[in-house]
Amino acid sequence: MSDPQDQMSRFGSSSSSLLQGRRFYCREWALEKLQRCLDARSLPGQAPGLLVTGGPGAGKTALCTEVVWPTSKVGRAVGLAQRCLASHFCQREDQRSLVLWRFVLGLVEQLRASPVLSPGYQDILNSPSVASALEPLSCQRDPDDTFKRAVLGPLLDLPPPAQTLMLVVDSLDVEHGPSDREGKSGSIAELLAANQHLLPGWLLLVCSIRRHNKAVCKMFSGGAGLSCSFQRPEFLGSDHRGRDL
Fold first, then answer.
1. Which domain of life is it from (predicted)?
2. Which pTM does this prediction carry?
């Protein structure tokens, strides 16, 4: 059997943002609201997720990018990047970023490398039942099972970190389609929607979706909301010119 970590490095998808390194404009209020939601996540009755919505060009991807790789003074000051456990950017330009099983393996790879998780996570991944689920062929056959064995189950079992963390997934509705297998997820959106209520209380799921995609928005209707749509176009800046975010 191949080494699972080597397999994940070869086959997993840990996508970056096309806007990484671009200057962030005029949405500091959104970073502050996200910080408040993240700080409140562990309180009783709080929603497991935050849904970032808006039309094309409203700044959803720019916001998610600033959270993970801050360039602005406010973005660096709020310190959200240090509290991002993992991230994923779905891109039409990169079909690999839309493949469910690659997303799961890429997510595991980021969790494995995270300095904020207990070292016990690595021990869980090395257990025979989890290691077998991390084999690419096994994950292709049943990404839901791999997600539960290697991500959800371990996060629920590990001791909570010192502060609440978040998982950021951008453009979740790109190329979304319903599964043709009963009881199985057919997309990243379906997988996260089916398991969001099971996430540990110290983890906030932050997803961005175009507001006109009612079907996907409905899948995450139980969470808090953050709309980028009311920003005036002249405030959006050059990081949105010619790009459909």
1. Eukaryota
2. 0.83
The whole domain housing 191 covers 9-101+161-240
Q: Can you give the pLDDT at residue 235? A: 33
Give residue 238's identity as a one-letter amino acid code.
S
> What CATH number does residue 86 fall under?
3.40.50.300
On whether residue 151 sits in a domain, the answer given is no
Joined together, the tokens standing for residue 126 give 């090395």
Confidence (pLDDT) at 243: 35
Report pLDDT for 139.
97
- Tokens for 105, please give them: 């393996």
Virtual torsion, Cα 36, 37, 43, 48, nearest 10 deg? -170
Identity (one letter) of the amino acid at 58?
A: A
Mean pLDDT of 23-29: 69
Does residue 73 surpass a pLDDT of 70? yes
**Residue type for 114, please?**
S
Amino acid 40 reads A
